[in-house]
Amino acid sequence: SPAPVRVCVTGAAGQIAYTLLFSIASGHVFGPNQPVALQLLDIPQGAEAMNGVAMELQDCALPLLAEVIQTTNPLVAFKDVDYAILLGAMPRREGMQRKDLLRANVGIFKEQGEALDRVAKKSVKVVVVGNPANTNALICAHYAPSIPSRQFTALTRLDENRAKAQLASRAGVAVENVKNVCIWGNHSNTQFPDVAHGYIVASDREVPVADYVGDKAYLEGEFIKTVAMRGAAIIAARKLSSAMSAAKAVADHVRDWHQGTPDGEFVSMAVISDGNMYGVPPGLVYSFPVVIDKKGKYRIVPGLDVSPFARAKLDATTAELQEEKREALDHIAH
Ligand code: NAX
């Protein structure tokens, strides 16, 4: 069998990791013939719980799981990794200012960027999930200058999956028949779930989402709001943030980045902007529709029409990302 793919998961003692690690170790991400070595990272307060997770992974008796390393040292966790999945971040606590949250996360993603720079494979693919995910990814890339910044991404696939699920339910079709619905911008309330290029497969025909749903007011109003507020709705109901669905979305993101997207379909990934696409300024980690080839190289889908309605949405989420970046750079400078 081939050499194991080496995957670091940070925040390994947390909620998302609990589902995600099983999914990776059982072959759902890298395929049924690809062994995996897992390198788990958490902070010292999480070490004992992480050990319990490692014990359970062992007890799953999974044929593809070649090795499990657990550590609280990023230099050990990121050593020679092919993939780094960064779940661990400073959570927002009651009464904490946005500013303090961002400062704490700048510290974490600086340390992890520097460690990736020193010990990871130069071909490492990074996905940041810990919030604020887009800006954390940008900071991480900034501190890993020897790794191309296009290899740093942030997760918006959960938002895409939520959007597709809402449309499937509204249209009364199976969720896999909803295609090419994408998320633009930040993983936050300003994100823009866009149906303009999406279609629904019905009796072997591809019907544009807008025609199938036939309710413009819903698509431009309640739909967007429901998707953007879904995380808050889960917290209100569960008293915990999304974990199962987040893990599934991370698995989708990494699987597609590793194995490629189906012909004719695109998916959402927050990636570094180069200033040449859709009027997004350079140097932001911004969610775009992308296609990924079988070798795992992604490309932002070019040439999609942007309506005036969409333009305003793209610009609003750009403004928020610029503000987050400015604040992050402020913390770096001081
Ligand atoms: P948990 O609080 O259950 O787990 C986080 C784990 O990370 C803890 O075990 C903690 O000890 C560890 N950790 C903290 N700082 C660390 C560091 N510097 N190095 C290594 N480990 C560290 O959170 P969970 O529910 O698993 O969520 C993880 C992150 O995902 C959160 O920041 C959350 O906000 C974010 N989310 C992002 C989503 C997205 O779509 N981008 C959606 C789901 C989720 O809300």
From TrEMBL:
<dbReference type="GO" id="GO:0006108">
    <property type="term" value="P:malate metabolic process"/>
</dbReference>
<dbReference type="GO" id="GO:0030060">
    <property type="term" value="F:L-malate dehydrogenase (NAD+) activity"/>
</dbReference>
<protein>
    <recommendedName>
        <fullName>malate dehydrogenase</fullName>
        <ecNumber>1.1.1.37</ecNumber>
    </recommendedName>
</protein>
<comment type="similarity">
    <text>Belongs to the LDH/MDH superfamily. MDH type 2 family.</text>
</comment>
<keyword id="KW-0520">NAD</keyword>
<feature type="domain" description="Lactate/malate dehydrogenase C-terminal">
    <location>
        <begin position="156"/>
        <end position="329"/>
    </location>
</feature>
<keyword id="KW-0560">Oxidoreductase</keyword>
<feature type="domain" description="Lactate/malate dehydrogenase N-terminal">
    <location>
        <begin position="5"/>
        <end position="152"/>
    </location>
</feature>
